[in-house]
Design a protein that fits this description.
Layout lengths: L1 E5 L2 E6 L2 E7 L1 H8 L5 H16 L12 E4 L16 E5 L5 E4 L4 H10 L10 H9 L4 E12 L6 E2 L5 E5 L23 E9 L2 E10 L4 E8 L8 H15 L3 E6 L4 H9 L2 E12 H7 L4
Parallel strand pairs: 4-6, 12-13
Antiparallel strand pairs: 1-2, 2-3, 3-8, 5-6, 5-14, 7-13, 7-14, 9-10, 10-11, 11-12
């Protein structure tokens, strides 16, 4: 592979042909400033998690686990229903548990019984779930969160024309096929999107939700017949750069088992940053499982 420098862009060549990846790292640094490093991005994420969890950002760096009482916060991510009954967060060092008094001892016993990484997997999760159930609660959500790696984030060229869409251009796109990219229930938070077009038809869409004051979450949808062509990673990476250019930190969420989404995050220049597990009321879980 040959590498050719042209202004601030880095064009990668393979077999004499331009590869479909164009890196704009130098341009990006000029636009958002050199301070937006991986360390800075992680710091912003931990500060937001601290607002969500009712703790201090340094709590995520400790070796020992931390238990705090969850409280409502106007600075928390806007879709969170606070206070938490039990929410476990780990950035890989320990567990910060945001709880209510009635679940404190259950959670304390659980996170002290198993190593940090094993508290987020079965069969150990069954131990916590069985303890929670008599109180009217069950484990509900588990997810992995990704942050951009500034050493890897590149604008990947899409195989179809793309366009950046602002908030006032999103109204016609609130359809089922774009339900991951946009949220019809929270339209006011959808701020930005990047769409791919084939003969004027939208075939892929990455949307950004302003979930809090400093971080915007990326969601992605691609029509089935246009998948496995690099559309998702192109739109995700382009949107991430657009978010950074606006002074915000993009983040990406996926379930462990959603390998397609996880692969897209990594291919787009993101890397795992933290994990969360949330306990909700048993009624809420039954409704999600369509058992009532």
């Amino acid at each position: 592979m040959l590498e050719k420098q042209r202004k601030n862009d880095i064009i990668l060549y393979k077999n004499g042909k331009e590869e479909t990846k164009i890196c704009f790292r130098m341009s990006l640094e000029n636009k958002i400033g050199e301070k937006m490093t991986n360390q800075k991005i992680l710091k912003i994420a931990m500060e937001q998690s601290a607002r969500d969890e009712s703790c201090h950002p340094d709590d995520f760096k400790k070796k020992e686990n931390v238990i705090v009482e969850s409280k409502p916060s106007r600075e928390a991510r806007n879709y969170l229903e606070l206070p938490f009954v039990c929410n476990l967060v780990s950035y890989g060092n320990n567990i910060v548990a945001s709880i209510q008094p009635q679940t404190k001892e259950i959670v304390k016993e659980y996170i002290e019984r198993f190593p940090c990484e094993h508290c987020f997997e079965t069969p150990n999760l069954h131990v916590l779930d069985r303890k929670m159930e008599p109180l009217g609660f069950n484990i509900c959500f588990m997810a992995e969160y990704f942050l951009p790696d500034m050493e890897q984030l590149c604008e990947r060229k899409a195989p179809y024309p793309t366009k950046v869409l602002t908030q006032n251009e999103l109204a016609p796109l609130y359809k089922k096929e774009w339900e991951n990219a946009l949220s019809s229930k929270r339209k006011e938070y959808d701020r930005l999107a990047v769409a791919a077009f084939d003969h004027g038809q939208v075939v892929g869409l990455a949307g950004a939700s302003a979930d809090c004051d400093t971080m915007w979450q990326i969601g992605i949808d691609v029509l089935p017949e246009y998948r496995r062509q690099g559309v998702a990673s192109a739109l995700t990476s382009q949107l991430a750069l657009e978010i950074l250019n606006r002074g915000m930190v993009p983040f990406y969420c996926a379930a462990w088992s959603n390998l397609k989404s996880v692969r897209n995050a990594i291919k787009s220049g993101f890397r795992p940053a933290w994990v969360e597990m949330t306990v909700k009321s048993s009624d809420f879980v039954r409704k999600m499982n369509r058992l009532v």
